[in-house]
């Protein structure tokens, strides 16, 4: 079965090349090249029951056909079947075609119904004349395969037919004991059903991806992914690392200076990572915690342990702004302990960069904070033993591994701590991060007050401005966040400056301040300091303040263009208020009309402040690829599995992976190869 596709009839070098483009090199690859979806040509749909978006077969008699000009030339054909009627619209058509479509002719069409100017229509349907009314429809669903230019569905269907003829030689790597009565069919049945659904298949289940045959394959695919991450993890955790065994004196000194006690969750997570780091193998731990859960201190504790043991630590964030805020936070906390923190970003002057590089290389800096710039070629550490990565979801598995190499010193790998504020349902996290241990800071520091959230149309902006007046009169402070969808800092800054000017004018009795990413760090700091001191009452800001800003007296937040932001980001922003004793509120200003999803997002925020609940809704709205940030990195791309739809399988997947490693370790590699053949770089980097 691992023979090249060229053993099949009619596959020469040219076709083989095309197939290779979509990852098909062997006969097995063909069998695991699964249909993306199905077309249902098994029954004729009454026109009267058709809804926009339905794809299917309709049959009727031509009432009327004409060529019209509506901006361009087109052929419109009116078809009816006694239950209703529909328009066929052609932009490209021949004279013969036009002449053939005469009144009274019976047509059978296939296509997708859309809402048109005069009821439903199908643009460029496939169609043919029906001469005999009893002409049969297809008796099976038509599989549609992922393909590439110049490779027809018909060729793919023919090739899979041939591959299916050899199916009995395909080994099943999941023995019955591993599949463990999940009620799923065997591999052969599953593949046959998915490629060539039999006539009696429950159509709705198959179209939904919930047929047992599909679940069997999704299950196997998830097991393969799980095993590949587990293998990656095993390779890493077998490597040596510097054991960090310390009393925790430095962190105790820091704690003694804090005006509050650690939460139970923070203590537990710090204990977990202390145990990890004391081992002579690299820690690989993901720490999740909602906004404001206090992740920074947990990261600081890990860094101080490394420093106390005589090593260096590196802290990396995905953006300049985030990195800069970490640099300030870490600096403020560590300076009094005599621990020197270096700053490495892409924006440093040549001289500042040279100086920072020397500090890091000579070990004068014990902690280095920065962006990706931390891991460029010319950065050398004196003795790096810990890498902290904030906001994991923006880095892929491969980037993570490249970082690890950076700390490789005489074959010892650094410990890795990954922090994320994106709460992900637990089973999903265990699948997506099967190569990591997993801790949750599931408790917020005490004294946080609930936040009341409202959504207000832009048309009532003046009421919102009055509300600021009121809050300020009561001695409280407010944020006004200007958001633009554009990544451009320049445009964001401009929007913030405009709003700043408007609000300064509208609120003559209020001290208004402005921060954005384009300001000089010194100016930014001075504005922030004045806001913290209560001198500035209203802070107009870009999403710079998404992270790190902490002013307990600020109890009102207005977020402009809230409809354009994602749930996770809105939740992060809102987390800036509700930190003091006053009741806090958040106003989501939106520009109507709201799209369906935007309304759902705003509703979700009004309904709850629980990060996990918000994450669950986010997952439903955006899908796992977006939520995990893996769509961009290419991790977790599945052929058939769907993390959302197949969530209920995930626990069983984990069990099965464990059992397979125990019972048939020799099946693990071929199973991974079968499903992740395009992704062998996992093995290469690790
Ligand atoms: P996040 O988890 O969002 O990164 P931070 O680490 O920025 O949260 O912490 C948010 C705020 O809570 C900071 O001002 C921090 O000083 C404060 N904080 C952290 N831990 C505690 C605690 N145990 N008790 C009270 N405040 C805390
Ligand atoms: Mg943070």
Automatic annotation (TrEMBL):
InterPro entries: ATP-dep_DNA_helicase_RecG, DEAD/DEAH_box_helicase_dom, Helicase_ATP-bd, Helicase_C-like, NA-bd_OB-fold, P-loop_NTPase, RecG/Mfd, RecG_dom3_C. Residues 276-441 form the Helicase ATP-binding domain. Pfam families: DEAD (PF00270), Helicase_C (PF00271), RecG_dom3_C (PF19833), RecG_wedge (PF17191). GO terms for biological process: DNA recombination; DNA repair. It is an enzyme of class 5 (isomerase). Its EC number is 5.6.2.4. Transmembrane segments: none annotated. Keywords: ATP-binding, DNA damage, DNA recombination, DNA repair, DNA-binding, Helicase, Hydrolase, Isomerase, Nucleotide-binding. Signal peptide: none annotated. Plays a critical role in recombination and DNA repair. Helps process Holliday junction intermediates to mature products by catalyzing branch migration. Has replication fork regression activity, unwinds stalled or blocked replication forks to make a HJ that can be resolved. Has a DNA unwinding activity characteristic of a DNA helicase with 3'-5' polarity. This is ATP-dependent DNA helicase RecG.
